[in-house]
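Session log. Operator J.P. requested a structure for one protein chain; no other inputs attached. Running the standard single-chain path with token output.
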Amino acid sequence: MDFRFRICDFRLGDVMHTESATPWLARDYVRDVSSGNVTDELANDVYRLVCRTDLSSPGFCLVNLGSNASSESLRRFMVSLKRQLQEVHQARRQRELVFLSAARFDQQTTTKLHRDGGPDECFLVLGYEPSEVRSEVVLADYSRCARDMRLTPNEFLEQHNPMFGPGAELLRPYATRVEAFSNEAAQVLLINNSSAALSKDGTTWQGVLHTATIVNPCDDKRRVVNSMMVASVPLGTVEPVSLSEQDEFITTTTVRRRGYDRQHLTDDQ
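Structure written below.
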């Protein structure tokens, strides 16, 4: 799909609305962290970029750990980052951040723009390991598009879901191809996966949709995605993923299949 177009025209009743949208630049959302350490400065910066409550930030962030980070150190970084983001969230919103899931997948299926299932306020933490399988990632600001069409994000998905209809055309001007995404480095992509409507008090998270195009899928190679979903919940909510399960996520060597069988690879499940 060609996401280079900048202008989207559509009719709202008798009103013609034209929205000019410019893709985010790499400097707006890429952070290099070769040390692998999660500092307070990094946590606050990532929170600002991802956990947006208006449309002035991208709603996503790519953290580059470089080509020398191991699989385990990548996952340890992801869990550490979530825990420090929780401290930021508690201070700003007086709410908790909890894991809803944490798993590893071999993901080599091209997807359409979509929102992963989850509560109204949640984000994804996707840790990509270096791989010979190349891919491209695009994020689309459907919350901004919905606002411009005078819809809520949920109403936009109900009426123009790009998974099942022509909604992708409406989202073309709102899409950013993640230019710095690389199969040669360990990278963490955080994506605001929310569907909440803009609130008058400016507190609800504004989500984006995402898609991945697999350039050269290969049955004998891995494209490992370490996937976590994190949700905003009231204080005192019990973490659905226990500490022991979090530790298992960090240290396991097992990779789950997605949609196909690779029993000849020893880490397959």
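Operator note: Confidence is low (pLDDT under 50) at residues 1-19, 260-265.
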